[in-house]
Amino acid sequence: MIDPNQLRAQLRACAPGMPGWQAFENACIAILTYLFTPPLSRPHIQPRTFSGIDRRDAIFPNRNHEGAGNWPHLYKELDARMVLFEFKNYDTTEIGKDEVNQTRNYLTAPMGRLAVLCTNKKPNEAAHIKRNTIFSEEKKVILFIGPDELIEMMSIKERGEDPSNLILDLVELFYIQHE
Questions:
Q1: Which of 158, 178, 135 is nearest to 8 (CA)?
Q2: DSSP alpha helices (H): ranges in the chain?
Q3: Where are the alpha helices (DSSP H) in 79-124?
Q4: Longest C-alpha distance within the chain, in Å?
């Protein structure tokens, strides 16, 4: 049985920067697995492309193509066959347009057009502008979530509600703020 309080503690204990990058990634994957599997399938961790050039942090297959719910909706709206999660645990470096662009490059047609950038701190203005440009040009949606959102989704699940409601809320908020 997974203890949500232990997951929270694990996330909060992550040191920023290089000393804590692996712990941050592991904590995020554990939390996302707790939150979303099922209905999403268990994640592929650190999968590489055939050539080995690209390595994505975590991919959760979305096999929910039919029916009601947020994941079938996101599958239809954004072709979210595979939900990509990238993790950034920075210390002094800002989370900017380069990190967003890297995430965009991982969103190939078979993957779909939805990615989530899990960060230990808020992305800067250039990151927000870049994701707007990416959506305008390619209709790819890149969401930003941090520890507060991960913890909020755990609370949502503990109340017996669907934590993916927050993901859908963030997509809708992105649409509202997009310019």
A1: 158
A2: 4-12, 21-36, 70-78, 97-106, 125-138, 147-158, 164-177
A3: 97-106
A4: 44
For CA atoms 94, 97, 98, 104, the dihedral sign is positive
List pLDDT tens digits, range 128-160. Answer: 999 999 999 999 999 999 999 999 999 999 999
- Which residues, including other chains, have CB under 8 Å from residue 142's CB and lie 6 or more apart? 100, 103, 104, 115, 116, 117, 131, 134, 135
Query: Structure tokens of 124?
Result: 């800067």
Secondary structure class of 130 (helix, strand, coil): helix
Q: How many angstroms separate the CA atoms of 87 and 64, rounded?
A: 24
pTM: 0.92
Amino acid at the residue 44: H
